[in-house]
Write a structure and sequence with these properties.
Belongs to the UPF0175 family. Pfam families: UPF0175. The protein is built from five helices and no strands.
């Protein structure tokens, strides 16, 4: 399933961003907003933002967004650390 969102030209022009950056910036904004509302997990939000986990983590830090850290993520991190 795929979704396209129509944004009026007047809004796109008001963004004051270079045309090449508009889509990526809007994806970042949407990903952060959905993550903040706990509508997307960290992994899915970073996928939407088209960023790796370190880049997305930095973006959240820049926005002073506290990272949601579930017990499942803790288990994944511990399992990863044990393999090291």
């Amino acid at each position: 399933m795929s979704l396209q969102i129509s944004i009026p030209d007047s809004i796109l022009q008001a963004l004051r961003l270079p045309e090449k950056r508009i889509e990526q910036e809007l994806l970042h904004e949407l990903a952060v907003a959905l993550y903040c509302q706990e509508l997307l997990s960290f992994g899915k939000a970073r996928e939407l933002a088209q960023m790796d986990k370190y880049e997305f983590g930095r973006l959240l830090a820049q926005r002073d967004v506290v990272r949601h850290y579930s017990s499942e993520e803790l288990e994944d991190d511990l399992a990863y650390a044990r393999r090291q």
